[in-house]
Write a structure and sequence with these properties.
Blueprint (H helix, E strand, L loop, with lengths): L1 H4 L3 H9 L4 H19 L6 H10 L6 H10 L5
Helix pairs in contact: 3-4, 4-5
């Protein structure tokens, strides 16, 4: 596969094995809360109401971040 993509095998495995960043870990945690809020709404809430639910829980995040996470995980929700 690495030959077909014209990349070094060592570079590929370095990329695969690198640890997740703080931002990625926080996004995963937020995505769990977003999914819970969305399911509790009967799968009808958009990013604005989900953001409001998160703020009610004491989570500090912008509506833009919530919208981005929903857009990136659309097929999971």
């Amino acid at each position: 596969m690495c030959e077909a993509l014209l990349i070094q095998r060592s570079g590929f495995y370095a990329w695969v094995d690198k640890p997740k960043s703080k931002r990625q870990l926080e996004d995963e945690r937020l995505m769990g809360l977003i999914k819970h809020s969305w399911l509790e709404s009967g799968c009808v809430y958009g990013y604005r109401k989900v953001t409001s639910d998160l703020k009610d829980l004491g989570e500090a995040c912008s509506k833009h971040r919530v919208a981005k996470l929903i857009r990136l995980h659309r097929n999971v929700l």
